[in-house]
Hints:
The protein folds into two domains: 21-79, Fe,Mn superoxide dismutase (SOD) domain (Helix Hairpins, Orthogonal Bundle); 91-195, Iron/manganese superoxide dismutase, C-terminal domain (minor pseudopilin epsh fold, 3-Layer(bab) Sandwich), CATH 3.55.40.20. It contains nine helices and three strands; from the N terminus they run H-H-H-H-H-E-E-E-H-H-H-H. It has helices at residues 21-43, 53-59, 63-79, 91-101, 104-117, 164-167, 171-178, 184-190, 195-198; strands at residues 122-128, 134-140, 151-157. Strands 2-1-3 form a three-stranded antiparallel beta sheet, with helices on both faces. Helix 1 packs antiparallel against helix 3 (63-79), helix 2 packs across helix 3 and helix 4 crosses helix 5. The protein is globular, with a radius of gyration of 16 Å. The chain binds fe (ii) ion.
Amino acid sequence: xxxxxxxxxYPKNAFVPYISSETMEFHYxxxxxxxxxxxxxxxxxxxxxxxxxxxxxxxxxGPLFHNPAQHWNHTFFWDCLRPxxxxxxxxxxxxxxxESFGGVEEFKVKFTQAALANFGSGWTxxxxxxxxxxxxxxxxxxxxxxxxxxxxxxxLDVWEHAYYIDYRNSRQDFIDAFWHxxxxxxxxxxxxxxxxxxxxxxxxxxRPPSSRLPH
Length: 215
Ligand SMILES: [Fe+2]
């Protein structure tokens, strides 16, 4: 079964001036598509075709891990962005961030520091543990929090391909832009998700219902 790119819930110019249409075009149609194309090639005619995306991510290594994990990570990332200035954190999110980081602004500072310190290519995540407590986590390359028994609420792609067209080598500027786009409704919906709830059919990267946002 061929996996297809998830449809973006917004047009590619939805994040101008923070993320250009050109970046969205390359990031989604070239980079994300390339991971998916490679993954489809790798699993064609193998028992992996019958496995869920999450199960493959949890049990594989090498290209058979990198490509599906990058597909999952990007699918998740697209939902972490919301047009028209993102969405304001709800009181529940404000309380959660205050408990773990001392406040929303304090969280943003810590997340930004982590994203800047994430050496090379990778992802910076806001995750929750089994007990619901929040944490900021860096992963390298394609690595996923799901492999570490941590469940994502929000992520930022800090691979250079995510920002080089718009910000050249300035990851800081890209992170600053992200705070104008963060989708807190999506983050909140993810707080109730655990590993078994993320698991889904191989035809899709599982996303909570709130990802179907109006646009
Ligand atoms: Fe990316």
